Write the structure tokens for this entry.
Amino acid sequence: MPDTYDLIVLGSGPGGYVAAIRAAQLGLKTAIVERELLGGICLNWGCIPTKALLRSAEVFHYMQHAKDYGLVANQISADLEAVVKRSRGVAKQLNQGVTHLMKKNKIDVHMGDGKLTGKGKLSVTKDGKTTELTARNIIVATGARARDLPFAKADGKRIWTYRHAMTPPEMPTKLLVVGSGAIGIEFASFYRDMGADVTVVEMLDRLVPVEDADVSAFLEKAVKKQGMTTMTGAGVEKLEVSPDGVKASIKGKDGKTVAQEFSHVIVAIGIVPNTENIGLEALGVKTDRGHIVTDGMCRTNVEGIYAIGDVTAPPWLAHKASHEGVIAAEAIAGKHPHAMDPKNIPGCTYCRPQIASVGLTEAKAKEAGYEVRVGNFPFIGNGKAIALGEPEGFVKTVFDAKTGELLGAHMIGAEVTELIQGYTVGKTGELTEAELMETVFPHPTLSEMMHESVLAAYGRALHI
């Protein structure tokens, strides 16, 4: 007889394992199916280990600029193998933490390839052995994988995806990064700080194109100052791999194609949802360009089947997946069900300088028909930023001029990924400029810039 559950979660990434935990907390008999490692791509090969790499690069950068802080540090060097080893250790520690959470919450873990075989039915195959499971509800949380260039598949030697870039066989000397979204620009930043000559090619007309245009412009100036080469409105047309490197044919915004030599290439042009061969077609689950279509409660068009995370619609962010896991579990249990507003999901990019945002950009707000009030405050006007030796960056806020609603916030500079949640709480709580102005911010902190940006939108900034 097959094992029977109230809920089976297919995939144990930040969406899947959180969904399983929340379901178990609500009294549902729960199982999780994972084909590789608990924690999924994010914990093992994405969000967490990349931040460990970036932290090492950040410390290396500060060591090289020790004299700026009145310190002396001589003969500074980096050990790439040790940096990678530390990153993998961080991932392993958190993987073990998820394993502990599964045991603590009495969630059954089935390792192997999962496939929907009928309504409420799922099979798990490992080492040629198949186990049949049944459940009243199933959450699909199978995530996504890196998209390859159609003319050049990643080989792990000269052409890398993010996964190869996290465990490099050698240090690149001259690196080409294709794509300037969060993944691309983070690896560009890491390898530049570690000493590589880095070129970034972006098909659209600016770096980090989903961000506010002012942020993109600031980032481009910052990375060029660091010695990075950027090519926007450009595309890679061909990659020719040899034992010694890669010859790339790059078509620039002027329409001319030039050939350049690189030691390695990182391809970061998007993701492909993991929806193949898991039984969706047979059950009639609706998809859009491969991504599963869901409603505000993460329900698919097939009763009893839910979907969360990167396998569904954008934004493709770990914290969005986790919150969707909570939404789906609570909808299934019928306790505290609530939908999520995509405009209240913050985004963070951990390059140097960091980028963080939530809500509408200034351009998107105007496109939507809003009359806007915009506030800007620079890092150079903040005492804590100057004391930290981090005077570059700004905080930008966008308000509805008629109602005072906070429509969006956009930040670039040191530690902004830690600051953005203040604006996210404000947006979720539907605060207006009045409440934000009347909030007391501690001194001296970087967060004071958030206050000043709001004041600036209404002509009341105090320190500039």
In short: Residues 170 and 287 are 40 Å apart (CA to CA). The longest helix spans residues 80-104.
